[in-house]
Amino acid sequence: MPDRSAVMTASLVLGAVVVAGAIGAGLYYDSTRTESAAAETVSVYTPPVGLGGPSAVFIGDSYTSGAGASEPVKRWTSLVATDNYWNEENLGIGSTGYVTAAAECGGTPCANYQSVADTAISLHPRIVVVSGGLNDFTAFVDDPAPVVEAIYETLGKLRAGLPDARIITVGPSAAGDVPPFITAYESVVRDASAAVGAQFISLIDPVDVVTEDMIAPDGIHVDDRGHAAIAERVNEELN
Questions:
Q1: Burial track 154-174 (b if 16+ CB lie within 10 A, e otherwise)
Q2: Where does the chain have alpha helices with state H?
Q3: Residue 166 pairs with which residues in a beta bridge?
Q4: pLDDT per residue as tens digits for the range 111-164
Q5: pTM assigned to the model
């Protein structure tokens, strides 16, 4: 686990950069891309008989759960699982983030990534993929310190509970111009990943994999082409 004082110091430095960038961007991206409060989960994908690969748990938001895909097998997590012969357990919950919990899930509060990490650990997977961050943007711009702490604590919890697992983190996507606060947020996830020996995969660097024509009719999620593009980037980095 990283030194808490070092994390908090880094948070304050990042805060200045984030706020300045957010003001310059006018928070336009944040206000138009934040997920709706309605949380949606998608049934767990069952790989074809005979794959026999390692178990892989996916933690994330509605992009991870498969919102926007025409069917579960076309969401990016399932495409990656199939291509790599993984047995997928999808724990994605819409409207959540490392620190952000959705308003409700079936009448009860939704867990954030920190809480879902406990479930992931209990499943004893060989691989854990943590993806997203979109829903943390507002909190990150308002006060980055708690978000930075949540990112480090989530990944630290996973490493402590699954010392031999392969941990992979995937940053948030962006369609069009990438505001400075998204770059700053991604940098935190990248650094926290390095601190626990996890592999970080960017969806915006060197090229943003999601284009505006891939956004679903709801204006928030990605369609099948977007899920395929995310899967392609992840597979490129894994291989």
A1: bbbbbbeebeebbbbbbbbbb
A2: 4-25, 28-33, 62-65, 76-83, 113-122, 137-142, 144-161, 180-195, 224-238
A3: 127
A4: 899 999 999 999 999 999 999 999 999 999 999 999 999 999 999 999 999 999
A5: 0.80
Contact 200, 164 (CB under 8 A): no
What domains can you pick out in the chain, each with its CATH number? 4-238 (3.40.50.1110)
Closest listed residue to residue 175, CA positions, set 33, 80, 38, 71: 33
Q: What is the CB neighbour count within 10 angstroms for residue 197?
A: 11
Evaluate whether 58 touches 88 at the Cβ level (below 8 Å): yes
Question: Left (φ > 0), alpha (ψ -120 to 50) or beta: where does 107 sit?
Answer: left
Closest Cα partner for 175 from 208, 138, 131? Answer: 208
Contact call for residues 133 and 186 (beta carbons, < 8 A): yes
Tokens of 15: 């805060």
